[in-house]
Specification:
The chain is an all-alpha fold. The chain has twelve helices and no strands. Pfam families: Mito_carr.
């Protein structure tokens, strides 16, 4: 009987130790989260800075009724450079960094956590997730990041489409919007943003992770080369942005309504206005060819930087 009690207590203690997270495991989890946050922040900053002039040009066309063409886009870039100087091509990039750094850090970190949670749920610990959970992890990561950083996205859009005399800095944008339009304006266009982020982030992460998985399966190499990661990221950006682009146009119109003379409206009323005034394809896909140029570059840089930073940090930690 004594032995039975002793064996029972030993087994109970072992079970408890298995359930309770060890300090080493907890510390490792914290390191992984911090590593993901740092890698994501750097990835987002590098990617957005690289394509900032193209991004600003795209936003200006999205929120105006002018017809888009590659010739007109590059003419706008050229005259902006002549009239306002070379650095004006990066106008609004400081606001972009304020938004992108936390956005990318949260998105990449959340994606790693959602992959871990879904992998544990579906029994794929330490292995590539199956397709549907892979898509879900990306969509949830994008939604989480967009929800937490949306006002910064609105501020960045306002700075991109207005002359520098109107808003002197990021804080000035917040102050003027709060005074003249009300605090709720800071979340104007949030619904189309989330509706656009779900397919964009979902398909981007899904495509990138799928291509890496296929590469691992067919090449026999565990890790792709950096240029291969760039190609995978470019494909991911092309697919993700093409799928969600009309909602991106709608959210830009809603975000900048207060300074472009458009009426604040709902998603459907904004969609109807764009289609009625500019046509379904020309209006809702305005600037998409610019996105096909900048999107794959930005997403390729972003995914590649994140992966390489993760590898470097893991080596430094070990």
């Amino acid at each position: 009987m004594g032995n039975g009690v002793k064996e029972g207590s030993v087994r109970l203690r072992e079970d408890a130790e298995a359930v309770l997270p060890s300090p080493v495991s907890s510390k490792r989890d914290h390191r992984q989260v911090l590593s993901s946050l740092l890698s994501g922040a750097l990835a987002g900053a590098l990617a957005k800075t690289a394509v900032a002039p193209l991004d600003r040009t795209k936003i200006i066309f999205q929120v105006s009724s002018k017809r888009f063409s590659a010739k007109e886009a590059f003419r706008l870039l050229y005259f902006t450079y002549l009239n306002e100087g070379f650095l004006s091509l990066w106008r609004g990039n400081s606001a972009t960094m304020v938004r992108v750094v936390p956005y990318a850090a949260i998105q990449f970190s959340a994606h790693e956590e959602y992959k871990r949670i879904l992998g544990r749920y579906y029994g794929f610990r330490g292995e590539a997730l199956p397709p549907w959970p892979r898509l879900l992890a990306g969509a949830l990561a994008g939604t989480t990041a967009a929800s937490l950083t949306y006002p910064l996205d609105l501020v960045r859009a306002r700075m991109a489409v207005t002359p520098k005399e109107m808003y002197s800095n990021i804080f000035h944008v917040f102050i003027r919007i709060s005074r003249e339009e009300g605090l709720k304006t800071l979340y104007h266009g949030f619904t189309p943003t989330v509706l656009g982020v779900i397919p964009y982030a979902g398909l981007s992460f899904f495509t990138y992770e799928t291509l890496k998985s296929l590469h691992r399966e067919y090449s026999g190499r565990r890790q792709p080369y950096p240029f291969e990661r760039m190609v995978f990221g470019a494909c991911a950006g092309l697919i993700g942005q093409s799928a969600s682009y009309p909602l991106d146009v709608v959210r830009r119109r809603m975000q900048t309504a207060g300074v472009t003379g458009h009426q604040h409206g709902s998603i459907m009323s904004t969609l109807r206005t764009i289609v009625r005034e500019e046509g379904a394809v020309r209006g809702l896909y305005k600037g998409l060819s610019m996105n096909w140029l900048k999107g794959p570059i930005a997403v390729g840089i972003s995914f590649t930087t994140f992966d390489l930073m993760q590898i470097l940090l893991r080596r430094l930690q070990s």
